[in-house]
Design brief:
The complex is a heterodimer.
Chain A: H1 12-21, H2 24-36, H3 41-61, H4 67-84, H5 90-95, E1 98-104, H6 111-122, E2 126-134, H7 136-145, E3 150-154, H8 162-173, E4 181-185, H9 191-197, E5 201-202, H10 206-222
Parallel strand pairs in A: 1-2, 1-3, 3-4, 4-5
Helix pairs in contact in A: 1-2, 1-3, 1-4, 2-4, 3-4, 3-10, 6-10, 7-8
Chain B: E1 7-10, H1 17-23, H2 32-48, E2 52-64, E3 67-70, E4 75-76, H3 79-84, E5 90-97, H4 101-111, H5 115-146, E6 150-151, H6 167-173, E7 182-183, E8 189-190, E9 194-202
Antiparallel strand pairs in B: 1-2, 2-3, 2-5, 3-4, 5-9, 6-9, 7-8
Helix pairs in contact in B: 1-5, 2-5, 4-5
The chains are: A alpha/beta, B alpha+beta.
Amino acid sequence: MIHYETDIDMDLEKLTKYVVEGKSDDAEAFTIEALSKGMNPKDILNKGLIPGMDIVGDKFQSREYFMPEMLVSAKAMKKAMTHIKPLLSSSDTKSNFRVICGTVSGDLHDIGISLVGMMLEGAGFEVIYLGPDNTADDFISAMEEKKAQVLCMSALLTTTIKNMEITIQKAKELEVRHRMRIYVGGAPVTKEFASHIGADGYKPDAASAAKMIKKEVLLSAKD
Amino acid sequence: MIDEKPEIIEVPLVLEEDDVWRVLGAKDRVVTELQSEVCEAIDEVSKFSIPLAIFQKVEVDTIEPKRVKFRSGAEVSNKFAAHLFQGAEEAFFVVATVGPDIDYRISQLITAGDNVEAIVMDAVGTAAAFNTFTYVLDSLLSRTVSRDWKMGTCLRPGQSYWDISGQSVIFESLSAEKIGVKLLSSSFMTPQKSQSGIVPIGPYLKIEDDPSNSYCRYCKASRCPMRVEPFDGVVKK
């Protein structure tokens, strides 16, 4: 078993700042140094990297940041994570929540949902991408197979959003709806529509969606 | 007059960094930490994209308050379209694409977990498709002006003023598969980096506009990064 030092003289707020500012080389160098000094990778993740992405999400919501800033922060986090991921034990991974992301049947545009997935990864979730064009069966099978707690569905067009409702209905029919939290998003989706089809939530952008999902999933885990 | 045969043109792709920053929502500024990804994606797209367009001129039959009918039998049932067609005698039906390879590349990047690169590649593809379509509109404008005719705003299905199901009007009239573009039952075009529209023309067209400038004034998508003009709120659907 690896022993990690608990008293390392490195300021994780610095790492948070590197993520917020999108300084990927600095974030990577800091992470390598922290690991070489014996810092627990889980601390680097939870106290350095994730708080950085939380701040990025807030800045995006307040329109201080736009897509490019979000992308460079995600890039910084990813660079640091390449060194941390192999060191996280399976129990660390299991403590994360698992999310299935994909676009609904007939819908080919998966850039929006990959942005949501990227922000959810930044929030500490394990994200599994199904890609575009998933039927209700595809989604539900993946949820069951991967033992995921959260399903995020996206649709770009008015012609395909009906497939979100079909998926939720299918989950009800199969009596698995209670086992999952379902979130929906995409250009034609509204809060009213999400509520009408029985989804657990909707937000108009990736950052606020990730924030809402994190909050609600953590709350429901406490229940 | 009989509708002319469709014409296919190869479009020279001109893609600048600024075009991509605008799609990414960073108009008039460069985010240096992302610049290498943007430049690499532009190089890649410039190598493997095949920008093509097909268009056909069709005669307008009648313009009713909520509908435009063409001699070909096609019709657009849309109050806003009818408004923009006032005085139009003909229209160009247009589809343009940059080819399928960008879709494959984006899909590869997402599968590999390279989301940042995928999103940048998607933005480059969008900018390429936009520039390709704009090139075609400019070319059609030149032809129209040379006849001493006027050209109106390009109507595009999927904008706030015209539901995406309007794509079928264009694809039923134009053999876009000749340039490799298909319309799916969901109204998605494949390749995804394709654009379509209908442009009214005529010597006495009442709504004048420069189509290379903007159709944004009629679109209510206020946060759209491609917006170049504010919604003027004058024309209601």
